Amino acid sequence: MRDGGTNAAGGMKRAGGTNTAGGTNTAGWTNTAEGTVTADPVLVEIVEGTLSSVEKEVETAIARTARSPMIRDAHDFRAGIHDVRLRKLTGRSYSALVQPIVRDFPITEMKPGDVFFHNDVYLSEGGIGHLPDLCVTVPVFHGGEVVAFVQAFGHHDDIGGAVPGSMPSHARSVFEEGLMVPPIKLWDEGVPNRAALTIMTRNSRMPDSLAGDLDAECSACLMGARRLGELFDRYGRAAVEACFDAIISKTTETFRRELLAKIPEGTHVWEDYAEHDGVDEPRLHTQRITLTVDHSAPAPLVIDFTGTSPQAKGPINHAGDYADGVFLKKWLAPILRNLADTPERMAELDVNEGVVPLIEMRFPEKGTLLTPIFPAPTNARTFVILRLLGVLAGVLAKATGGRMPADQETIRYTGVYGTDADGNPYLMREVLGGGSGGRWYADGEDTIHVVPDSRNIPVEFAESRWPFRVERLGLARDSGGPGLYRGGLGYDKHLRMLRDASFMSIADRSILSCWGVNGGRAGRPFTVEIEGRPMEGLVDDSPVRAGEVIRVRTTGGGGWGDPLERDPELVAADVRDGKVSAGGARDDYGVVLCGPADFGPADSGLADSGLADFGPADEPQVDAEATARLRAGLRAAAPGDAPFFDRGPGFPSLSGGLPYAEVDRR
User: Fold this and answer.
1) What is the pTM assigned to this prediction?
2) I need a surface site. Which of 73, 241, 344, 356 has the fewest CB within 10 A?
3) Residue 340 CB coordination number (10 Å)
4) Within a domain: residue 307?
């Protein structure tokens, strides 16, 4: 069954149904076949800590034993723990779903040592976004029965397809994107399926890395299953499952009481856009959310995607309308944490299956960016699912008077491929972050990444493995959106190639900027230049010659609040720290600086260097009188009816000259 119903063998309703062995109530106890069991508060803490520990242990094991830079070094993977009712129990990482496994393999027929595998986007119930994301799932046993699942999925080097890396930016069909594997049993009672592994590695340009990564993930999940089995052995199934119910119920009630209560009832609408799909000319690909809030309803939040654009010809589609949208519910729910009373409290809030009953998803008809029809390509689906995070933040900002961060675009793929000095093929692909949006209480963070614990590839490792030099890795000055609270900065990275190669990029926000909110300004967009030649955001095989320099500047987050209200001394500190140029201080913040150095305009070589060219003795000083005069003039010249959101100068180029969208006013 694809879209709901009961798995007769497993005794459960997918997407959060009821285990026929016993019902559950919200008080945290479970009526099971063994009798009524109340979750002991102390045991709940023990179980919750054990789940977190097992999840971290699985991820650590994968990081230490995997072979590909994408998994081992960049940490573009995550683990998750789910109960037998397919509910995600952990909140440290987002993860894929178990639904496609139990759909195709009855739980009662699973055996200890089994490992299941899949990466088929359209047969994953919405849990897999593109084919390079490979997922392994291991059942946990107690008393001869399945009691839970340990899962890991991550972005692998190559699974075939038209281009190295399996992300062809101009794909028109999923068949161009790589090898599709529906749910299969990859290990049978501890014995690997060598035929399946041979097929997968034969289709990969990086067979050794793929084999090593899969072995690491399977072994780590099997280890995690043993650890979790020990928890059941020690405390018993009924007690542990009662704790699972309590953990999930706590999340439900915490989100309802602390976060959703801050959203006024009513209906609010906003939209944002992807700018290109790799096939058609750049245009606005709309993702729209109509948010209806009714605190008396069982699901207080209704997220309606009606108004989202038709599916794209190119690979920016995301198959999200499966299993009642349960993956997207957990993907979007972390945005709600911004409503917490303090940043410290926000960091304490996990996102597990407890958020699912609070949200109702309403999808448009088949054939949209979020409801694509097979075999629509999906490899660049990050353009949609990352934008949806921002759309939800934007519509919540309208509903709450701006108590949401400005926009961010903290993931894009860039890389090079070719042959090394020994004639061996190589692929260097990196997932670079960007700046996060300014918040109502603080500046955004620099160079963050949406994947938990992710990082850029270390320079020393890169230079020892691939034929290029990293001549610069720093912050992109002036990239953060100006605001009362400034947007975080993106990367400025320069690679000098030592051999001829090909450059690739899968990136959005190269025309449209990360938006600012409540008077804040948009950040700078993503740019790539090769010896001064500008590159598009979607590139498969742009040639780069030995000796040429690839310069990548990633996105800055949007600003929050009026930049003319920012403390001039904070602006001077940003100039001193190399985050804002003196020209940017003047033009964006109305702050005039004086000192022995000519700090230069925003686009000067000094600004590009990202470094402060003065020492402690000659730091920039604020000219208070000149600043007051300049700010007064800038305020007088500002339009009196500015919209709530600032999308930056790229929006009019794609909107037919409109300065802002109709939904941008509060």
Assistant:
1) 0.91
2) 344
3) 18
4) no
